[in-house]
Design a protein that fits this description.
Blueprint (H helix, E strand, L loop, with lengths): L7 E5 L4 H12 L3 E6 L2 H13 L4 E5 L5 H15 L4 E4 L14 H22 L8 E5 L12 H23 L3 E7 L32 H12 L10 E4 L13
Parallel strand pairs: 1-2, 1-4, 2-3, 4-5, 5-6, 6-7
Helix pairs in contact: 1-2, 1-6, 3-4, 4-5
């Protein structure tokens, strides 16, 4: 039996990258999965992949910058599978450009998707999570330090970490937990890698070279751990997964 046997997981940003890897891995660990994404066809493709491998899944369309869509995707999980045990709020958006180039429209978009989206998502899942349930949010190493080529994105991700810390008592009062993951570079659309990533047996994953690019599955495995009872003592934390890049200064660059 997998660690999520008989449980239900909601994954946002599930059409590609980290979200698609996480959806597959939650399903492999026994969860029924609601795969949510703005790209309805992409979300359904991931759900169909899970079903073709013997799992249970439903794909739904959701714009996480809208409170109603967040409530609707949670309602879909309850309607389809009867409960919600884990929510991985992974969806986000990135905007590249110097500080001088980043205009009000860019800043508002980064806040709406990355920060308000996390806020709406956490508010939607909190009352629905079963006892001992957990929420996990994708933040970024750019939420730990600044990012000169993406100031608006970095600002929003700093906010995500503050949001997770600030909501941890509310989750604890409900018998649940919330934590953030701060990935470094990952082979996703931000780095030009698109599509549904393949997943390997978890115990065969190789260590990423120092400051190297992680695979989506590296982050998905951490999400599984933080969403499971195995991390029952961890709440309100931001866990960095960046192959050591921020661990010491100066970074080893060659």
């Amino acid at each position: 039996m997998g660690m999520f046997e008989g449980k239900v997981a909601l994954i946002t940003g599930a059409a590609s990258g980290i979200g698609a890897a996480a959806a597959q891995r939650f399903a492999q660990e026994g969860a029924a999965v609601v795969a949510a994404d703005m790209n309805r066809d992409g979300a359904e493709a991931v759900a169909e992949l899970i079903r073709s491998n013997g799992g249970r899944a439903r794909g739904v369309a959701a714009d996480i910058s809208k409170a109603d869509d967040n409530r609707a995707m949670v309602a879909a999980a309850i309607e389809e599978f009867g409960r919600l045990d884990a929510a991985y709020l992974n969806a986000g958006a990135y905007a590249h450009g110097s500080f001088e180039e980043q205009d009000e429209q860019t800043f508002d978009k980064m806040i709406a998707i990355n920060l308000k989206g996390a806020f709406f998502g956490l508010q939607a899942v909190l009352p629905a999570l079963s006892p001992n349930g957990a929420a996990v949010v994708t933040a970024s190493t750019s939420g730990v330090i600044g990012l000169s080529v993406a100031a608006a994105y970095s600002s929003a991700k700093h906010g995500v970490i503050g949001l997770v810390r600030s909501s941890s008592q509310a989750f604890a009062a409900k018998g649940a937990r919330v934590n953030a993951i701060c990935p470094g570079p990952v082979a996703t659309a931000i780095l030009g890698v698109t599509g549904i990533p393949a997943v390997a047996p978890a115990d065969t994953l190789e260590a990423t070279p120092y400051a190297g690019t992680l695979t989506p599955q590296h982050i998905a495995e951490l999400a599984l751990f933080l969403a499971s009872p195995r991390s029952g003592g961890i709440n309100g934390q931001a866990i960095t997964a960046d192959a050591g890049y921020l661990a010491s200064y100066p970074p080893m660059l060659g």
